[in-house]
Amino acid sequence: MSDSPNWHLAVERLRSTLVAGSWALLEITRGTYADWKDELPSPREDLSLRVEILAFFLHVASRHAQRTGRVTRADLLDTLRPVMARDLIRAAWDAQPENPFQGHGLVQQWQMAQVLQQLHEADAAYGGCREIAGHVMNSTNHVLGRFVRRAFAALEVYPPVDLSRDLGQDALDVLTRIRLPALVDGAAVWMDGHR
Description:
The protein has one domain. It is 73% helix and 0% strand. The protein contains seven helices and no strands. The chain has helices at residues 9-37, 43-68, 73-94, 106-127, 143-154, 161-178, 180-193. Helix 2 (43-68) crosses helix 4 (106-127) and helix 3 packs across helix 4 (106-127). It is globular and about 50 Å long. 37% of the residues are buried.
């Protein structure tokens, strides 16, 4: 990525894997929504869902970072959040016939501010949870359950319990496949040595 800071490979690997994991879960969620509602989310709903999924992945990564003892949650979020917000905005506009993210201007600044605010708000909502996951997928007592509720709220729907359970399991599956703790640990080692 040409706009990313001069990071160590471990931090870039974490960033790119978080983006890939977020987009994978986005596609799964879109498919589930399309099968259930027989339509795709509106562009506004789709952007809200993208932000929520990215916020979820960033929050879980930041919890893992804090557990390493090398960096704080804020260290990881302050490093990754702005670049990933820019990634998200660009990806959201890639499919549009006129891409307002080309060049620089007030539209881009406004969008960045909006996405960063949404990421902050979601992180605060997840911060109230003690655990990342629990036995009941749609419980708001843990991050995963809160994510499921917030993801469907972004889509402005209240799904049946089986769809909530499926989205929670899909999110867990993606987190497992990307091996997030190992990626965070590698990034935390480098970040700890470069403060």
